[in-house]
Amino acid sequence: MKRLATLVTASAFLGACVSTPPPSTPEKDPAGAPGSDRYSLQQDTAPHEHRDVSGLPEPEPKQEPRSKYGNMKSYSVWGKTYHVLPDATGYVAEGNASWYGQKFHGHRTSSGESFDMYQFTAAHRSLPLPTYVRVTNLDNGKNLIVRVNDRGPFHENRIIDLSWAAAVRLGIEQAGTGRVRVEALSPDTDNQSNTVPTAVRAAVDSPPPRSASTAQGQRLYLQAGAFQDRSSAERLRQSLRDQLGLESEIRQQQSLFRVWIGPYQDDSSRQQMRQQVANAGFDRPMPVTP
User: Fold this and answer.
1) CATH classification (class only), 5-185
2) What does CATH list as the number for 210-288?
3) Residue (of 26, 17, 22) closest to 98 by Cα position
4) Are the folds of 5-185 and 210-288 the same?
5) pLDDT for residue 31
6) Domain limits of the chain?
7) What is the tens place of the pLDDT at every residue in 159-183?
8) In degrees, to the nearest 5, what angle opens at C-alpha 14 toward C-alphas 12 and 17?
9) Rounded to an integer, what distance in angstroms lies between the CA atom of residue 20 and that of residue 29?
10) Looking at beta carbons, which pairs linking 63-67 to residues 24 or more positions away fall under 8 Å?
11) Bridge-based pairing state of the strands 121-123 and 143-150
12) What is the pLDDT of residues 203-226, one digit of tens each?
């Protein structure tokens, strides 16, 4: 639920959003992450001053230059490499969200801006900084536009780290985490629309039922991404080859260019590769069957 460290590299600031240890654990991260002992609080908490954010206006998507920091092609945190997308067009992902608050309030984010837990912002591993996204709570239907200006969360089972204010508006503050959909927005996006964009650049964390993917004679694949333009699909395909030595294919279906890895003869092999790709810092692929 909480954010552990902001990593400072030679070329960029990287925020490390992960689960924090219990309060009794020393502030210094056992993995030795740079910056993990620079905060005055050992445990992240909700703000001391609980402001009413119910009437706070949502950020309005607008064209902004990329921030000076936090937009390298790839970066490493705790020995794991992550890849920043060349653009956010059509990005959609579903998974778990967490939040961060008092511990990091006023400290510098990966983009170089000061973190304000009372604003609607968020941290993301791969979206360009800044990017505007709509986050929808899949359990209660609430949705909110936030501005991504930080890096994280670096916890395998989470896809976005929300500011405290955003977590309150979406109804996940008390639980600490929540199931969400994240959709990238462009400046001309209708802010009132909840329509999922046509291009999908990430996968749902939960695979389909095993019975649907292991029928006799079926060939099993992983979809690493889907794009509106072939050039973006080619870039992902090249990154998979360069980083993991993986060969993939591009299939054009329903006006999308889909990057598929495989085929696999059994679901066990496919799930092992799915985990390997996620461990390498790519978005977790989605199991698919032709």
Assistant:
1) mainly beta
2) 3.30.70.1070
3) 17
4) no
5) 31
6) 5-185, 210-288
7) 999 999 999 999 999 999 999 989 8
8) 175
9) 9
10) 63/187, 64/130, 66/128, 66/129, 66/130, 67/111, 67/112, 67/113, 67/129, 67/130, 67/149
11) parallel
12) 433 333 344 334 455 789 998 887
User: pLDDT tens digits, residue range 7-59?
Assistant: 433 333 454 343 332 222 223 333 333 333 456 677 888 888 888 998 899 99
Percentage of the chain exceeding pLDDT 90: 42
Q: How many residues does the chain have?
A: 290
Place of tokens 């960029």: 12
Closest CA to 169 of 142, 190, 149: 142
Tell me the residue type at 76.
S
CA separation for the pair 232, 66 (Å, rounded): 18
The closest of 139, 200, 207, 209 to 174, measured between CA atoms, is: 139
**Quick one: which of 208, 76, 63, 257 has its CA closest to 154?**
76
